[in-house]
Amino acid sequence: xxxxxxxxxxxxxxxxxxxxxxxxxxxxxxxxxxxxxxxxxxxxxxxxxxxxxxxxxxxxxxxxxxxxxxxxxxxxxxxxxxxxxxxxxxxxxxxxxxxxxxxxxxxxxxxxxxxxxxxxxxxxxxxxxxxxxxxxxxxxxxxxxxxxxxxxxxxxxxxxxxxxxxxxxxxxxxxxxxxxxxxxxxxxxxxxx
Length: 193
What we know:
Number of domains: 1
Oligomer: single chain
Strand order of the largest sheet: 1-10-9-4-3
Number of helices: 5
C-alpha cells in the first residue's frame, strides 16, 4: 500500500495514547471524539512531515491539524510558579524519571499536531501494536508554537533505546533546542488519586 494513499490508510489510536490523552489529564487532549481526531489526521495527511530526528515519512510522522478543540499540557513557568516533582514512569515496564509539573494556567493553543508511528516502527524495541492499523496515534501536541521540541527525556529514551523508546539519532542542536524550550515550561500539575 502506498504511504500517501489516505483513502485506504488504516489509522487508529495506540493504547498508549488513548490512555494518556484524556480530558482533564496531565497531557494534551482533544475535546472531540477519537474518530473525529482521526478524520482531522486523514484530512491533513498530505501535509505530514517527518517526526523529530527523522528524515523521511516511513516511520514517524507529525500531522499538523486545526487547533480547535485541543487543550495544551504545558504551563509557562517563572520565578513565582509553584512546581512539583515526582518520580514517575510513562508505563510500568519503563525506566523511571523525575517529572516536574507546574501550577498555573495551561498555555494557549495556537497550533496542534498528531504524532503517528507506522506499524513496523511500533514493533521496534520490543514494542507492540494496538490494532490492525497502518499508523497509530502515539501523541497529541498542542500549544503556542508550531513545532514544539520533543521533551529531552523522551529524546534520550529513544536515542539510548531504553524500554518504551523507539531508536532515533538526534543532533546536539536538536537536544539543545529541546532543553532550552523545556527550561521555561512544565507539564500542568494535576492532582492524581
